[in-house]
Amino acid sequence: MAAHDLITGQCRWMEGSGPHAEIVITSRVRLARNLAGRPFPHLLDDKGKQGVLAAVASAAGAGAVAQRYGKLTAIQVSELPALDRQILVEKHLISPQHAQPGGGKALLVNGDGSIGIMVNEEDHLRIQCLLPALQLHEAWRTATGVDDALEETLDYAFDEKHGFLTACPTNVGTGLRASVMVHLPGLVMTKQIGRVLSALSQVGLAVRGFYGEGTEAVGNLFQVSNQITLGQGEEEILGNLSAVVKQIIDQERSAREALVREARVQLADRVGRAYGTLQNAHILNSQEALALMSELRLGLDLKLVKGVDTRVLNELLVAIQPASLQGAAGREMQPFERDVHRAQVVRNRLVTIQS
After folding, report:
1. Domain hosting residue 287, numbered range
2. CA 84, 88, 89: angle at the middle one, nearest 5?
3. Could you tell me if 317 and 13 are in contact, meaning their C-beta atoms sit under 8 angstroms apart?
4. What is the C-alpha separation between 148 and 157, in angstroms, rounded?
5. What is the mean pLDDT of the segment spanning 78-95?
6. What CA dihedral angle connects 229, 235, 237 and 241, to 10 degrees?
7. In this structure, are residues 182 and 245 in contact, taking their beta carbons and an 8 Å threshold?
8. Among 245, 224, 227, 286, which residue's Cα sits nearest to residue 90?
9. Which of 67, 78, 158, 281 has its CA 20 to 30 A from that of 319?
């Protein structure tokens, strides 16, 4: 698999199937690891980073990883054009920090993007498993399996008292960051979202936007993740997050049921207007497109409209983003030209919807 295939292809998380897929878009588990005896990436020069990359790539190409999880292709992120790096961010395959200029950065990734290793991001390794719907434990099993296979060759920085050592103190311990991306239009429309988000912070969970830390929620999409990695075991972290997410799912379903019960006509009108705008608009900025797609997704889940696969909407979450739009078109665009092209892309993809 070449970098071009990953940049232009689709990812497994876009499938739109699995447990609670009508509310949970993705489940992600990420493990932060560093190599013993080497400075953290921010203290390494390019030669040092290349040494880390060589060690990780060698371990990933060894028998244990390949036999259990298939071949991981190495993509030299540092050598990609800025637009291609941003496309990988939009697909949730690398972080915004990893897309910043700098030598020695790479992504080791499988064919469908469900397994990835960011090399020389904030830590030497960020092992990630990204799956559709609510599959936190499945993602954990895969990520920790890759981690164990790598550790057969690599010597990690580990302290008996503190656990895995990381560049940021908030990751020390398990190095585990688990998150789910949830679609919560019901709680937003019924004005319960503030209460829910406040409660999450009180139980040690963080709520972030579409691209994680430092980003805002758009299109009623929220990322919920653990904040504590020290003093808790992996199963406890995953169990707590899963339990809270299931409560959020129940509350979102209740909010949707209330909307249908108390304001079905108004909701159907709102969904129909969003559907009509997406099918007919000739100018759409990204925020408006995501907001309208959120209402269409809600309408599909509530059977107020029909005829489109959820996968199409998941693919559009990426396809309408600035870098992906320009990459697919094969040229750079000014903001207004992107808005025009975005509307055209949406119209073309939704042409098969039948209400």
Report:
1. 263-349
2. 115
3. no
4. 14
5. 96
6. 160
7. yes
8. 286
9. 78
**pLDDT computed for residue 115 by the predictor:** 97
Type and span of the H or E element at 106: strand 106-109
In a domain, 136, yes or no: yes
- Structural domain count of the chain: 2
Question: 277 and 244, same structural domain?
Answer: no
Q: Would the CA dihedral through 296, 249, 12, 201 be positive or negative?
A: positive
Helices (H), the chain: 3-8, 46-60, 63-69, 82-90, 136-151, 185-189, 193-202, 234-280, 286-301, 310-319, 322-329, 335-349
Please check whether residue 124 is in contact with residue 116, taking contact to mean a CB–CB distance below 8 angstroms: no
pLDDT of amino acid 351: 80
Residue 317: its pLDDT value, please? 95
Q: Which of 278, 271, 290, 318 is nearest to 220 (CA)?
A: 290
Query: What is the Cα–Cα distance from 343 to 237, expressed in whole angstroms?
Result: 41
Same domain (yes/no): 224, 307: no
Give residue for tokens 């805002």.
216
Render pLDDT for 208-249 as a digit per residue (tens, 0 to 9): 876 555 556 789 999 999 987 667 888 999 999 999 999 999
> What are the structure tokens assigned to 243, written together?
């339990």
Quote the mean pLDDT of the chain: 92
Q: How many residues does the chain have?
A: 355
Q: Are 342 and 213 members of one domain?
A: no
Spatial distance between the Cα atoms of 257 and 29, rounded to a whole number of angstroms: 31
Residues 49, 163 share a domain:
yes
pTM greater than the 0.85 cutoff: yes
Instruction: Match 């008996």 to its residue by tokens.
Output: 160
Rounded average pLDDT over 62-87: 91
- pLDDT at 109 exceeding the cut of 50: yes
Tell me, yes or no, whether 71 and 153 share the same domain. Answer: yes
Return the sign of the alpha-carbon dihedral for residues 176, 181, 184, 188: positive
The answer on pLDDT for 354 being more than 60 is: no
Q: Which residues contact 228 (CB under 8 A, 6 or more apart)?
A: 173, 204, 237
Which amino acid does the sequence have at 200?
L
- Whether 319 and 345 have beta carbons less than 8 Å apart is answered as yes
